[in-house]
């Protein structure tokens, strides 16, 4: 399973000077879809081969099989074809473990359509009915990571959702920190909206939880390593943070950056 996983954005960014976010994101998308298209039949065969009806277990063999099967599903989902979307939906509907349910939901979350909406609504409703705040945080995290064209707007709307507790550090990390650290396409949106959104959140959080605000502000730590256009966009948000925040925690991070 691990051999099929591509290097992520932060890993590739460390090897590039200056960091060209657009180039890295385009290369990753191309590589993932090329892998899926070239080996679609093999990935499907492996996915179905690894399916079994044995009771859920946490032994090494079962964990490895689930990881490999879900990795195959993740790669296939990048094709965004009706049959691969149906495959993700079928796994979500039939999942008997949180691991398989989340794996399918992560695939659907990055695929626009009714299947995405339905799965996200069902997952949230189950978690709400069972009063599972940790599972709701996982639901927030999945959407924060989702590779959607309107990712910034989606995460903004989630800050107003009933399932998001704006005073709960775990919820803040699940939504805001994950968006800034694990959704490079959203955070590094060329128009700067991702930077502006996170700066807004830092400024607001600084009033009530300076430690969490400071940690979120560290999302801008690498701003000097980016291309000139993005450096300017990130620097302008750091200046806003320094001008509007009052806590030593946040100002230390903003000034150090």
Pairing-aware structural class of the strands and helices? mainly alpha
Runs with pLDDT <50, length 5+?
Answer: none
C-alpha geometry: globular
Mean pLDDT reading: 96
Q: How would you sum up the major sheet?
A: none
Q: Over the alpha carbons, how many angstroms does the gyration radius reach?
A: 19 Å
Amino-to-carboxy terminus distance: 36 Å
Helix content: 55-70%
Q: How many H/I helices?
A: 15
Q: How much strand content do the residues show?
A: under 5%
Give a count of the beta strands, DSSP E runs of length 2 or more: 0
Order of helices and strands: HHHHHHHHHHHHHHH
Please name the defining characteristics of this protein.
single chain, 257 residues, 69% helix, globular
Explain what the structure shows.
The chain is globular, with a radius of gyration of 19 Å. Helix 5 (82-94) packs antiparallel against helix 6, helix 8 packs parallel to helix 10 and helix 14 runs antiparallel to helix 15. By secondary structure, the protein is mostly helical. It has helices at 9-13, 21-38, 40-49, 60-77, 82-94, 98-109, 114-129, 133-145, 151-158, 169-182, 184-187, 193-205, 210-217, 228-244, 248-256.
């Amino acid at each position: 399973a691990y051999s099929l996983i591509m290097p992520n954005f932060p890993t590739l960014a460390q090897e590039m000077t200056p960091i060209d976010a657009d180039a890295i994101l385009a290369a990753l998308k191309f590589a993932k879809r090329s892998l899926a298209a070239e080996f679609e039949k093999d990935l499907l065969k492996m996915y179905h081969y690894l399916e079994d009806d044995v009771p859920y277990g946490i032994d090494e063999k079962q964990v490895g099989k689930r990881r490999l099967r879900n990795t195959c599903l993740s790669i296939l989902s990048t094709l965004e074809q009706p049959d691969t979307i149906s495959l993700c939906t079928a796994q979500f509907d039939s999942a008997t473990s949180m691991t398989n349910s989340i794996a399918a939901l992560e695939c659907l979350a990055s695929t626009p359509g009714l299947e995405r909406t339905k799965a996200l609504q069902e997952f949230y409703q189950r978690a709400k009915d069972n009063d599972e705040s940790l599972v709701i945080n996982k639901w927030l995290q999945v959407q924060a990571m989702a590779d959607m064209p309107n990712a910034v707007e989606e995460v903004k709307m989630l800050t107003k959702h009933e399932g998001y507790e704006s005073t709960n550090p775990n919820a803040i990390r699940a939504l805001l920190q994950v968006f800034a650290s694990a959704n490079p396409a959203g955070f590094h949106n060329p128009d700067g909206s991702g930077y502006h959104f996170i700066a807004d959140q830092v400024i607001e959080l600084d009033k009530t939880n300076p430690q969490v605000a400071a940690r979120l502000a560290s999302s801008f730590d690498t701003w000097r390593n980016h291309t000139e256009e993005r450096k300017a966009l990130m620097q302008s948000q750091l200046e806003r943070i320094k001008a509007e925040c009052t806590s030593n925690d946040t100002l230390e991070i903003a000034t150090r950056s």
